[in-house]
C-alpha cells in the first residue's frame, strides 16, 4: 500500500488546541456561547430528548450539498464509528454503527421504519436498506448506541431520515413559488445526476415536487476503469463493469386548516437499477451477468394538532403504506440458466406521538402498529424450463409498540429522561406447494432507559444514558430453508422458528465543554448483547455429508469504546488570521468480543480520526474545507482466526471541497477526494469475503477522484 506524507498526529490537532486553550477555564469570557440544538414542542423549552445522554450527529441538506454527498457511503464519510456496508454486486446495503449493522441498526424515513434486510445466500439474492435518494432529504440524524424509544432494531444505533419540506424553499409568509435545477457529476462512478424541485404556497396550502435522476457505472477501485479488463475469476483485480441508474420522486401537499390543525399527504417513489457482467464470478466457459432492481413506494397521511388539552399539548399521527421490492436476476451462459429471485415487504403503519408539558415534566408518549406482508419467490429457468421455489414461507408480521418518556428538569442544572417501552410482535406463516409453513413465532419485550445531564458549570456538562434494548428476529433468520446436493455431497440449511429476540444492556457517559470558541465532547460506552442470532453448524450425517446448518441464539457479545468530537472557531481563538476560519474533528475507537467463542468481533471498525479545516468568506459567497481522515490498521489480533488473512493496513485520506455563489440564485460545489491518490482497502469491505476470493486488490477503493455540481434557483 502507498503511504502519504501526512502524519497521524495531525488528526488530533483540533482536540489539542481546544483542551489546551485557556478559553475553557472558569475565567473565560462568556458573552457568546455555542449552544446545542433545541427542539421546541408545544409549550416545552427543553431540548430534544434524543440528545440527552447520547451522542447524536445531525447532517442537514446544506452539509449534503457542500460535501457533495451522493450516496450513503458519502453521507457517513466524516463520521468516525459509522460506516456504510457494501457488496461488489449489490452495492451499499446499510449502515454499521459501533460494530453493529444490518437490522441491528434502526432506519426510518419520516418516522416510517424501512424494510428488513433479506439475504439468505451469498449470491443471486441480496436486499439492502438503501432505497433513499439523499437529494430528497432535509436532514439525517444519527444516534449512536441504543435508544428505547425507537423499539426493535435500535441496538447499534438509529438513522432517521427527514425528507424536505415545502417551507424550506419558500418565503416565511405569503403566497410564493420557488423552483431549482441541480446537475452534477461524480468521476469515481462516472455518474451524472439531475434534480428538479418546485415548491408553492397558495393561501394556507403548501406543496412540493422533487425529482432526481441518476445514471452511471461501477464505482472504480484503485485499478481504474473496469470496462477494458475482461479477466475472469479470482485473479481479476478490477471491479466488474456495471451500468447503474435511479429515479426518485418526492411529493408533498400540506394544508393549515386553522391555527391548531395541519394535515398533509406525502408520496415517495424510488427505483434503483443495475446490470453487470460478473467477470469475477465467471469462468472462460461460463459467463455470468446480472440485472438487479430495487423499488420502494410510499404514500402517507399525517395530522398535527396543537390544541392544548388534558391529554396533550401537541399530537401528531400518521398512516403510511410502504412497499419495498428487490428483484435480482442472474444469467449463466454455460447452462442457458436464468435465476430470478425477489423479496417483497409490504407494510401498513399507524403511528401517533403526543407531547404534554406538566410543570417541570415534558411527557412524550406514543403508539405504533405495523402490519407487514413478506414474500420471497425464486424462479430457476434452464433451457426454457422453469422451476419455482421459496427460501421462506409467505408470512405476515404484526408489530405493536407503545412508549412513555419524561424529560424532567429536576433542577436548573440536572435533567433526567426516564423512558419505558413495550413491544409485541408475531409472525404467522403459510405453507404452499413450494415450502412448508415451519410454524409461527411471537414474543414481547419490555425495555427501559434513563438519560441524564448535569451542568457542572456554565461551560461543562456531564451526560450519560443506560438502558436495555431488543431486536426481533427477521424472516430470513427464522425461516430460511435450503437443501442442495452436489457431486461431492449434500447439505441443508434448516429453519429455526423458535429463535428468541436479541437483547442488549448499554451504558454510556461523557462530558461536554463549550464556550464562545467552540465545543468538545468526550464519551465512553459499554454494550452487552445476548441471544445474538448467528448461523451455526449442526454437524454432518449420512444424509448431509457436507453438513447441516441453522440459526441459533448464541452467548453474548460485548462492545466497548471511546469517542471524541469537537469544533473550534479559529478566527476567535486567533483573531489575527481574520474571520471565517474553523476547525472540527472526531475520533472513534471500539473493541468487540464474542464471549461465547472467545474471539474478536469482526464487525468492529479500526480506530478512525477525522480533522477538517474550513474557511467561509464573510460575504458568504464562497468557502472551502480540507478534511483529513486517518484509519489505523486492522491487526490480526483483532480478527477471528479464520479471517486473519484479511488484515488491512492503515491509511490516510485528504479531501478538498469548495463552494461558490456568484449570485443568490446560483451555487457551484466541487470536491477532490483522495487528493494524494492513496491506495487503500476498508475493513468493512473485506471482512465478509470468502477464502476463495484471495485477490484483495479487487476490494481497494477509488484513487483520486472528483465531484462537481451546480444549482440554479429561481
Low-confidence segments, given as residue ranges, are 1-47
The CA-CA distance between the termini, in Å, is 48 Å
How many helices? The count is 6
- Please estimate the helix content: under 10%
- Report the principal-axis shape: globular
Mean pLDDT: 90
Strand segment tally = 35
What structural class do helix, strand and pairing data support? mainly beta
Beta strand %:
over 45%
Radius of gyration of CA atoms, rounded to a whole number? 26 Å
Could you describe the largest sheet, including whether it forms a barrel? 22 strands, antiparallel, barrel
Write up this protein:
There is one protein chain. With 714 residues, the protein is mainly β. The chain is 4% helix and 54% strand. The protein has 6 helices and 35 strands. The protein has a 22-stranded antiparallel barrel. The protein has a 5-stranded mixed sheet with strand order 1-6-7-4-5. Strand 16 and strand 17 form a beta hairpin. The longest helix is centred in the first third of the chain and has 8 residues, at 13-20. The protein is globular. The two termini are 48 Å apart.
